[in-house]
Amino acid sequence: MAEEKKRTRRANGESAIYLGKDGRWHARVPMGYKDDGTLYRRHLTRPTRKELVDEVRRLEKQRDEGAARQPGKPWTVAKWLEHWVQNIAKPVVSENTYDGYEVAVRVHLVPGIGRHRIDRLEPEHLESLYRRMQSAGSKAGTAHQAHRTARTALGEAVRRGHAAKNAAALAKPPRMEEDENEVEPYSVDEVQSLLLEVNKRRNSARWMLALALGLRQGETLGLRWSDVDLANEYLKLRRNRLRPKYEHGCGEAAPCGRKAGYCPARVQVRRETKNTKSRAGRRAVPLPGPLVVMLRSHREAQAQERATARNLWTESEYVFTKPLGGPLSPNTDYHDWKRLLEDAGVRDGRLHDARHTAGTVLMLLGVPDRVIDQIMGWEPGGAARMRARYLHVTDPMLKEAARKISHAIWGAPENLAVDKDQDNEA
């Protein structure tokens, strides 16, 4: 026993195990270094030596794998999420991605699980949050957004040694029910009805770029005339229009009392466009002849608007602008789409459904997959998945497949007619 009690000098990387005067077994496990460079040791105590040795080995394994909590005061989930979203995520992700993270953190995650210590958060805490969100009226997709945000944030915490496990990676998010309102692309007749209506409006070519070529909203609103080559009948997609974001400009001394977006002295704090981040997104798209004609007419109409507005015109290089110049707001563009559907007598749908329509028409026309991927801007690695999501099998396609099956198995249509006549005679 005296031998067991004796404390021996060990190297800095080894754990010290000894029997204390209180009758319990103690250990000092080296875990790394503090901010000031001094060695950080975790103190453990257990009633028996075997229990202590087992715990020491578990902690040493975590340390060697880089999964152990680092020295310093443990983070709460709230503090970590707020730090992560502002200081780690914001500088490296797009504005839209940051907005999604920020809302999930502020509205759902911090109020729901923020008080837990990050190293003691369990999957069950997150699963309980998801159930509460849905009970309060949130859709499963909203809970999934919170889940993805938590998984990303906690994964970074694990990589930095603030937590041993990623509780969100272990948690089960709510089941995403099949969408009862599954996307149904617009038919050729509906597209033609829209075409008749868009010819009566400003920026008519804007809608046909969506319906014919599947351009995303940000890609279309971010187009500049330098991106459009009407002589060679193609356009280059290189940037996306971002949703504006404003801060108050009225000052604390005389606040306007309105939301920042409606402040008379509002200040825009987000850039207008960003470069397309993927190589597939930066692409050249061919322009059908009628669209070239529409764009030429649109450029002339815009020149006339500029001349009429004179000094009231806000100069910009955008293809699609407000009546007095300057870039179109995505929100205004969305409401214009809704009015277009209503005026054309076409069923309601999302603006993004126009993209589904364009992809399906390309497939219906027999355009090769590689060309569809180029026009739609899909990455080669995920193109098959995107085609499955965006390209819809229509009734004419099913009827054509049935005709081909009939021809292959029963022969030519005239043979079917002969066989039917023979059956009737019998």
Describe how the helices and strands are arranged:
Blueprint: H1 2-5, E1 16-19, E2 25-33, E3 39-46, H2 49-65, H3 77-89, H4 95-113, H5 123-135, H6 140-159, H7 167-170, H8 188-198, H9 204-213, H10 217-221, E4 228-229, E5 234-237, E6 239-241, E7 246-247, E8 267-268, E9 273-275, E10 283-286, H11 289-309, H12 330-344, H13 353-364, H14 369-376, H15 383-390, H16 395-410, H17 413-425
Helix pairs in contact: 3-4, 3-6, 4-5, 4-6, 5-6, 8-12, 9-11, 9-13
Provide keyphrases for this structure.
disordered N terminus; 49% helix; single chain; mainly alpha; elongated; three-stranded antiparallel beta sheet; 426 residues
Structure description:
By secondary structure, the chain is mainly alpha-helical. It has 17 helices and 10 strands. Strands 1-2-3 form a 3-stranded antiparallel β-sheet. The protein has a 3-stranded antiparallel β-sheet with strand order 4-5-10, with no helix packed on it. It has a two-stranded antiparallel sheet with strand order 6-9. A hairpin with a 5-residue loop joins strand 2 (25-33) and strand 3 (39-46). The protein starts with a helix and ends with a helix.
Unreliable stretches: 1-9
Please state the overall shape, judged from the principal axes of the Cα atoms.
elongated
Q: Report the β-strand fraction as a percent range.
A: 5-15%
What is the H/E string? HEEEHHHHHHHHHEEEEEEEHHHHHHH
- Strand arrangement, largest sheet? 1-2-3
N-to-C span? 107 Å
Radius of gyration: 31 Å
Residues in helices, as a percent range: 40-55%
Average pLDDT metric: 82
Count of helical regions: 17
Overall number of strands: 10
Structural class: mainly alpha
Mind summarizing the main beta sheet?
3 strands, antiparallel
